[in-house]
Amino acid sequence: MTKEKRENKTAFYFILPAIIIMILVHLIPITLGTYISFLKLNASNLSKFLKAPLTINNFIEILSNKHAVGNDFLHSLKNILIFGLTVVPVSFIIAYAVALFLNQKIYGKTFIIGIILLPYFTMDSVAYITWNFLFRSDFNILNGILKSLGIIKTNIIWLAGNKTLIPVIISTIWKTWSFSCIILLAGLQTIPEDLYEAAKIDGAGWWKTFKYITFPMLWPLSKVLLLLSSIWIIHSYNNFLIMTGGNDTKHSIIPSILITRHLNFFLNYGIGSAMAVILLIIVFIITVVLLLNTKDKTYEI
Amino acid sequence: MKSKTINIKKITKIFFIILILFIICFWVLSPYYLMIVSSFSRSLFRSFVSSTSETSEWLAPNFTLSGYISALNNKDVVRSFINSLIVCSGTTLLSISISLFVAYALSRINFKWKKAYEIGLYTTQMFPSVALVVPFFVFYVLVKRYLGIPMKNTYHGLILTYTSFALPFSILMMRNYFLSIPKAFDEQAQIDGCSKFQIIYRVLIPMALPGIVTVAIFSFIMSWNEILFSSLLTNPQTLTISVLLISPRFITFSELFATSFLVTIPVVIIFTIMQKQLVSGLGKGIIKF
Fold first, then answer.
1. pTM here?
2. How far does the CA of residue B1 sit from the closest CA of chain A (Å)?
C-alpha cells in the first residue's frame, strides 16, 4: 500500500462519523423536504405520502401576491430584510467601536471583556423574556422611563402593530453584538505592532492609522463576520417568537415563524416545505458569496 | 506650562474612557438589573398582570424571596434544568470528540475530495434549522418504525440533532486552530514513535486547548439556546429549560425571573472562568474561514 492510499484511508476513518451524522441529519432530511415541497401534502393525506402527485402549485402560491399565503410570505421576506439590514450593520459598528476602544491599554480589560460576553452566555429565552418585560405595555417600564425623561407624552404600544420590529431589533443587537466584538478584538490583536510603529514614525494620526492599517488589515475578518451574521439573522427564530409572544401580524412575521406555523398549526406540509426551500436558496446564495470572497485569502501580510 | 496641558489632556482622556466604559456597562447590564429586581419583587409575586398601568409599583422596596422559593420547589424547573444540562453536555462532548478527528484529518492529511468536503461543511452550516423541521419529524418517525429506535422524546435524539447543527462550525474552528499549530510538533512526535491517535492525544489536544474550549462553549450555547427542536422533540419528561421558560407554566413574573436568574448564574460563572481561552481560541479559529 502506498503512502498516499494509506493517508486516504486514515482520513476516511477520521471523518467517517461526521459524514454519517451529516448524511443522516442534513442530506436525507433536506432531500426529503425538497421532495415534500412539490407535493400537495397536508394532514388529511399524510398517510398517502408516497402516492401524492408532484405539483409546482406550492411555489406559485407562496410567491404570488394574490394568495393570502403568498402575501404573508412576501411580507415575511420584506421584514427579515429590514431586520437584517438594521441589525447586522448596527451591531457590527457597535462591536467594531468597542473592540477598537478595548484594543488600547486599559486597566481591568479582562473584567470588561467578561461583562461584554455576558449577553452571549445568557440563554436566549432569559434574555428575550427580560426584554419583552421591559417593552410590555401592561407594565409600562420603558414607557414610564421615557415619559419621566420627557421624550414621549403618551404610552407607546411596542409589541403589537407597526412598531413591533423596533423592540426585536434592539434586543437582538443587545444579544448579538458581543460575539462580534470578541471576534474583532481577537482579530485586532493579530495585527503586528510594527505596522503601528511605522505609521507613528511617518507621522500618521489616529484616523490615517485606522484608514490605512487597521481597517484594511481587519477587512477579511470583518467580511466573514458580516456574512456569517447575515446568515445567523436569517436563522433567527427565538427572538421573534419570544418578543412578539407568538401573535405576529404582517408587521413582524418572519419566514422561520411562518414556516413553523404552517407546519405545526395549519399542518400544510407542502406549503411549509416550499417556503423552507426558498429560504434555503437565499441562504445558499449568501454562502456562495461567502465562499467566493474568502477563497484562498490568508490573513498574513 | 507644558506639563499642565498634558495633565488636562490626560484627565480628559481618562474621563472619556470612564464615560465609554459606563455606557457599555449600562447598555449590557440594565436587562440583568431589571431581571434581578423583578425576581425579588413582592408585587410581581402576587399578580401576574399588573393592575397599575401608570407607575410601576414593582420598583418599590418590597423585597421577597418567594419567587426563588417557589422556583426551587417547582419540580418542572428542576427536572428541565437537569434535562438541559444532560442534553447540552452530551452535545458538547460528542461534537468535541467528532470534530477533533475530522479537524485533524482536514489540517494534517491530504486526501481526495478534501475541498469538496470542506465546501459541504460550509454549506450545511448555513442551513436554517427551520427547513429541517418536517423532514426531521418524518425521518425520526421512520427510524422508530423500521429500526425500532425511539428518537422523539429521548435525550439521544435531541443530542444527535444538536450535534449535527453544531458540528460544521466546530469542525471549521478546530481545523483553523490546528492549522495554527506548527507541523514540526507532529513530526517530532512521529519520530519519537507516536501513532496518529497518540499524536492527537499527547500533542494536539494539550496544545489546542483554547480551540477545544471555544468549540465546547459554542456547542453548549447553541444547544442551550435552542427552542424550536426542543419544543417538537420532547415531552414533559424530557423538556429543556429554554422551552419551559417560555411556556405558560409560570404563575408569577417573580418566579419566572427567579428561575431565569438561577439558570443564568452557573453557566455565566463557568464560562467567564474560561473566557481567556475563548478569546484566544476565537482569534485563531475564525480568522481563516
1. 0.86
2. 24
